Amino acid sequence: MNQDIFVLIEHMGGQVADISYMMLAAGQAISEAAGGRVLAVLLAHQAQGLASNLAADQILYIDHPSVADYTPDAYQHALANLIHERTPRLVLFGDTSIGAEIAGQLSARLGLPLVSYCRSVRASDGVLQFVSQVCGGKIMVEGELPAPTALVTMIPGVYKPESGHSTHPPEIVSLDLQALEKSCITLKGYIEPETSDVDISKQDLLVAVGRGIQNQENIAMAQDLANVLGGVVCSSRPVVDQGWLPSTRLVGKSGRRVKPKIYLALGISGAPEHVEAITGSQTIIAVNTDPAAPIFDVAQYGAEVDVLELLPVLTAAVQNVKV
Amino acid sequence: MNIIVLAKLVPDLVEELTIDDQGIALDPTWMRLKLNEFDDYAIEQAILMKERSGAHVTVMVPDVDGSDDVLYTAAAKGADCLVKLCGKFDQGVNNHALARAFAAVLRSRLPDLVLTGVQAHNDLDGPLGALLAGFLDLPYIGYVSGVKNEDGKVLVRKEYPGGLIAEMEVAPPVVLGIQVAEWPLSYVAFSKIRQAMKTNPIDNLQAPDLDPSGGPQVVRMSKPEIGEHATMISGNVDEVAARLLEIFQKLGVL
């Protein structure tokens, strides 16, 4: 049985995404335990240079105009053919706006099993086992990855992206692609994010609000605290989805990764999609009335008090010290 | 334009989750279900498109505890048709089974757009919308934050991390995984929901036998082991504020 591990490389604007390095690190760890080669699958056009520092035994490089930019149908078509021809043991995707949708469609079309929200894969007596984290991080699920081929979407946390980098350019195998006869989806263009707002990824102190802030008016209290501390207000996804803060202030998988000296998480539960974006913070202080909130597992300090009661008191206390 | 929204109910994470005696599934005994938040946005997006351009909106949910409430609330917001998919859903099914069941029903009545939430927190075997698109052999775009109907084609805004958006054009029929609607979730007065219960019938459709193949075989389910945990500050709000002040001073903020 083929033990090779495919890793779909995600890239945008000439940069390989961090999640891809994390998955290469995962592939290396699985390969060490279970055997098989790590084969990075790179779909691009005239961009072979993207492969230069990927920690893989081989790069399977498909160069074609139809995959110059990501569209779901072109990527799916290319990967379906490749997986069908080579029957790898595993295909690793990032749990991202690219990986998750490709993996889901391929699972249905090719009849291959799919495991999502996977944190790690281990080998035991020749059997590959997965550990996934679901229900907002509150439940762990373990099981076997069926042979001969299983698809896996991975979340950050266990494998370090640094281990997915290589200083030795890997062997590149160029493959032909029979293009889609008729592509259903056309990329019309990109809309870049607003740059006029403050860049939260460069701030030393962030006052982050979540559902616990309850409404838009209460964000002013968080702003008052940020003002006296010399920080910036940001938020988790629910606050932005409600339109209470602009998307430029979103911290999370679909927003910005931040690494401040202090991250004050107010009324934020700590779902994996948010936590993965704050792990670079030096000190996380979490305030939440739910003692079981996952945020307390990643914070250095925590308090189980009501954010709305704490904010004015804390702001006044800081102001008194500064006077 | 004909739009069908597929929604599912998921365990409410505000409540304590418990694992059954076999240790391989959640114990449903005291588990409360609520509408998947992203499916709520899918319903909202569909209603917005109806208001904008007169689309016909059908909302379809599997028959579990709370599904009637979801349907009547959707009707109160403006959904035209309500469908409950009947089958053994109360035992907990994976997305492969649910997607196959929806696909079997939709094959004979393909709409222009199928909207569903881009993900749910219990999607152990992948996102429902992507699986459904695969079973129906339809195109799929996920992480959608905007949908426009233009000259017979659909223009979709797809989100990437960091705020980058890609605009993609696709000819219907298409399945879209909604990340967020173009406007915030609307509040519906209970009186309107009560009115919908009187005036909006629910069509019951029988699902085929559920086929979960493609989803993983769970060997063990558990609560995460707590490695490191925060140093907790006890006391009332004044005491917590005082201790935080000391921490800020120690970290050099003040």
Walk me through what this model shows.
The complex is a heterodimer of chains A (323) and B (254). Chain A contains seven helices and 17 strands. Chain A is α/β, with parallel strands linked by helices. Chain A has two domains: 171 residues, HUPs (Rossmann fold), CATH 3.40.50.620; 123 residues, Rossmann fold (3-Layer(aba) Sandwich). The model of chain A has no long low-confidence stretch (mean pLDDT 94). The model of chain B has no long low-confidence stretch (mean pLDDT 94). Chain B is built from six helices and 13 strands. The longest helix of chain B has 17 residues. Chain B has a single domain, classed as HUPs (Rossmann fold, 3-Layer(aba) Sandwich). At the A-B interface, α3, β7, β8, β9 and β12 of A face α4, β7, β8, β9 and β12 of B. β12 of chain A pairs antiparallel with β9 of chain B, so a sheet runs across the interface.
What Rg of chain A is obtained from the alpha carbons, in whole angstroms? 22 Å
Secondary structure tally: strands of chain B: 13
Structural class assignment of chain B? alpha/beta
With helices defined by DSSP (H or I, 4 residues minimum), what is the helix count of chain A? 7
Per CATH, the superfamily of chain B is HUPs
Shape, per Cα inertia axes of chain A? elongated
CATH uppermost class of chain B: Alpha Beta
Provide the CATH architecture of chain B: 3-Layer(aba) Sandwich
Query: What would you call the quaternary organization?
Result: heterodimer
Strand order of the largest sheet of chain A: 9-8-7-10-6-1-4-5-11
Q: What percentage of amino acids of chain B are in beta strands?
A: 25-35%
How would you state the average pLDDT of chain A, rounded?
A: 94
CA(first)-CA(last) distance of chain B: 59 Å
Class per helix and strand makeup of chain A: alpha/beta
Strands of chain A, count: 17
Q: Helicity range of the residues of chain A? A: 10-25%
- Could you name the CATH topology of chain B? Rossmann fold
What's the overall geometry of chain B? globular
CATH topology of the largest domain in chain A: Rossmann fold
Q: What would you say the CATH architecture of the largest domain in chain A is? A: 3-Layer(aba) Sandwich
